[in-house]
């Protein structure tokens, strides 16, 4: 069986096969990868514990699949094209050969600094090629990477480092994003005050911002490289890993206050990201593929690094932001590097669309053959704009639905092979068995129905555990509905059997494609000394998809409410990061609670949406009068 599906008829046939004979199907897919030793058993599983093992007995290293196996044929092919934040700075190209050399070199740096198989390494770097090198070097020696997005605060870094007991942190002096400079090392320094497990910090030079370097703990990336060079740049053969050895941890928000460390393992994740990448995008040998995500999120892990590189693709990474120096930057990059496949988020599309067509006009986008979106539902207007202005009506758009926990795409069009409909993720990829259930876990069969989206059979890229707390994994994903993986998403299956994701059904917000738990934001707001209690809900936001709306009870009446709002925002930035700052803060004297003390979020959501015509039954509230007060306050806030 070829890895790429080429026609709709083939898709239907293979899909059927993958359901009837899943183990045979996945074994055939896995044959397309390089194994030091093949598996004894394709799959062992139960969703009760859960216990999920793919390709047991197999031995491999994912970096041999991403690098070594390509070098003979594709050694001079660009693996990574890096476009800097500042368009006047030179871009960089790393061929497969060069990337392998650099990964081996940095693997030796890690070893020289005492890092061994199984150690956890926290990576907090800007979007520079060294981030890819650091990630792959960890994977090469079997260290488990935990990449933290550059927008997270010192407190968030400390929580993640402590949860995983990281021994090493890899960071940079600073990072560029548009006109801003982010003082990464200084943020790490603040974090490390709370982290006992960290023995070493490797600091890359990027902005050359002054930084404090602590003797015995902090070393420069460049100096460490020089040491390896004076050792004669010895090769660093890849560590042989077991199929289910941990590859990485990536933290994500849920409905509780504490982010979870989603764990992915070597073999299944490798097979799944490679298979989904090549299929959904129908990657062709000379195409340049550009994913605008940050490597700090799962999209960057799976579809800037592992998926594309395991398929020998050219992956373009961008350090900056889409609207600087102006809203034409992405189109300049497409033109400059002759990008064929562009994969971005609806929030970026909406903001560039809002900036005006003048930024697209005159740009040569003729190289584009395929487009993709990810992270949140895309509205029809943005879909058509993307299709017409960027794809010129000729490039299929793959609306890829997936999650940090799924490792790769589950429901997505296959470009040019399966149909597309604006706003729909369409059909499951072969190997994926979605089902819709009602509140009680009863399957909702047939078409033209909506329900909670679950998956009833394992796939290789799925979450194995939440780091250090397996019970939490079980409770969150496998206990809501018996024998099913619960996604947390609501979903419609239309008359044609096409899937459309309608959004989260739990207390998780999706702000600009970033997952943020309301409880997490509430905890952060409540840290502010003047706050007694808060309730956070999402509301529709024209660019971000969802905005964050906070109802706050403050301990004293402030004459300058705006200043208090800024104080609260500052607190949230400190505790979580600027990405979690509320867009709106409304001060209230009470919250709508039931007699048992539960906040009626349904009412707050309606008020935040500006739809107060029908708030439903409010008679069970402890103090129904508070609702009118909140309604009035909301109208005032809207102006
Ligand atoms: O609600 C879904 C939404 O993003 C959630 C997963 O977020 P995260 O783990 O951060 O991963 C984002 C990148 C994969 C999902 O539960 N989501 C993701 N993709 C789509 C989507 N909603 C609608 N359409 C999509 N294509």
Bound molecules: adenosine-5'-monophosphate-propyl ester
Tally the helices: what do you get?
18
Total beta-strand segments: 30
Mean pLDDT: 97
Ends distance: 61 Å
Largest sheet: 8 strands, mixed
Q: What would you report as the Rg, rounded to the nearest angstrom?
A: 24 Å
State the CATH topology of one domain: Rossmann fold
Show unreliable segments: none
Silhouette? globular
Order of strands in the sheet with most strands = 12-11-8-6-7-14-15-23
Return the CATH class of one domain. Answer: Alpha Beta
Pfam families: ACAS_N, AMP-binding, AMP-binding_C
Organism: Parapedobacter composti
Family: Belongs to the ATP-dependent AMP-binding enzyme family.
EC number: 6.2.1.1
């Amino acid at each position: 069986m070829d890895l790429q599906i080429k026609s709709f008829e083939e898709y239907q046939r293979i899909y059927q096969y993958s359901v009837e004979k899943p183990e045979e199907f996945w074994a055939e897919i896995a044959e397309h990868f390089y194994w030091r030793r093949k598996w004894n058993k394709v799959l062992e599983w139960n969703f009760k514990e859960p216990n999920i093992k793919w390709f047991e007995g197999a031995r491999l290293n994912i970096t041999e699949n991403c690098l070594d196996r390509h070098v003979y044929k594709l050694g001079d092919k660009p693996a990574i094209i890096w476009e800097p934040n500042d368009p006047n700075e030179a871009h960089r190209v790393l061929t497969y050969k060069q990337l392998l050399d650099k990964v081996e070199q940095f693997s030796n740096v890690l070893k020289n600094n005492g890092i061994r198989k199984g150690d956890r390494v926290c990576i907090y770097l800007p979007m520079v090629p060294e981030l890819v090198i650091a990630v792959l070097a960890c994977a090469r020696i079997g260290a488990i990477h935990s990449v933290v997005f550059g927008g997270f605060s010192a407190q968030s870094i400390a929580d993640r480092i402590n949860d995983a007991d990281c021994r090493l942190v890899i960071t940079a002096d600073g990072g560029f994003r548009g006109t801003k400079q982010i003082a990464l090392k200084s943020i790490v320094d603040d974090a490390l005050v709370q982290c006992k497990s960290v023995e070493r910090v490797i600091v890359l030079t990027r902005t050359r911002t002054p930084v404090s370097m602590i003797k015995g703990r902090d070393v420069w990336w460049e100096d460490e490289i020089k040491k390896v060079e004076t050792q004669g740049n010895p090769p660093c053969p890849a560590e042989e890993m077991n199929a289910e050895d941990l590859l990485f941890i990536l933290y994500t928000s849920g409905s509780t206050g504490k982010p979870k460390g989603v764990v992915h393992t070597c073999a299944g994740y490798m097979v799944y990201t490679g298979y989904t990448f090549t299929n959904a995008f129908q990657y062709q040998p000379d195409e340049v593929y550009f994913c605008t995500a940050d490597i700090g999120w799962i999209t960057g892990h799976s579809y800037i690094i592992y998926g594309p590189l395991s398929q020998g693709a050219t992956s373009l990474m961008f350090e900056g932001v889409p609207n600087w120096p102006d809203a034409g930057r992405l189109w300049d990059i497409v033109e400059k590097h002759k990008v064929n496949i562009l994969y971005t988020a609806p929030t970026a599309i909406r903001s560039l669309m809002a900036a005006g067509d003048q930024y697209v006009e005159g740009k040569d986008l003729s190289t584009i053959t395929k487009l993709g979106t990810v992270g949140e539902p895309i509205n029809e207007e943005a879909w058509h704009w993307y299709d017409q202005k960027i794809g010129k009506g000729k490039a299929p758009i793959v609306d890829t639905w997936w999650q940090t926990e799924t490792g790769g795409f589950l429901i997505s069009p296959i470009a040019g092979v399966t149909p597309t409909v604006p706003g729909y993720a369409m059909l499951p990829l072969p190997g994926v068995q979605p089902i819709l259930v009602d509140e009680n876990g009863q399957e909702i069969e047939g078409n033209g129905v909506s329900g909670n989206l679950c998956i009833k059979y394992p796939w290789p890229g799925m979450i194995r555990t939440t780091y250090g707390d397996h019970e939490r994994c079980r409770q969150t994903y496998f206990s809501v509905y018996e024998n099913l993986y619960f996604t947390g998403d609501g979903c419609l299956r239309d008359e044609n059997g096409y899937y459309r994701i309608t959004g989260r059904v739990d207390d998780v917000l999706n702000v600009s494609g970033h997952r943020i738990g309301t409880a997490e934001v509430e905890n952060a707001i409540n840290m502010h000394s003047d706050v007694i209690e808060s309730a956070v809900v999402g509301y529709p936001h024209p660019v971000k998809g969802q905005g964050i709306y906070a109802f706050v009870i403050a301990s004293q009446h402030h004459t300058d409410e705006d200043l208090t709002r800024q104080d609260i925002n500052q607190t949230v930035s400190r505790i979580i990061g600027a990405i979690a700052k509320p867009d709106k803060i409304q001060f209230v004297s009470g919250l709508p609670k039931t007699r048992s003390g539960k906040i009626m979020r349904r009412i707050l959501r309606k008020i935040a949406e500006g739809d107060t015509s029908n708030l439903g039954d409010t008679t069970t509230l402890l103090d129904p009068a508070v609702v009118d007060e909140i309604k009035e306050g909301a109208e005032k806030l809207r102006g």
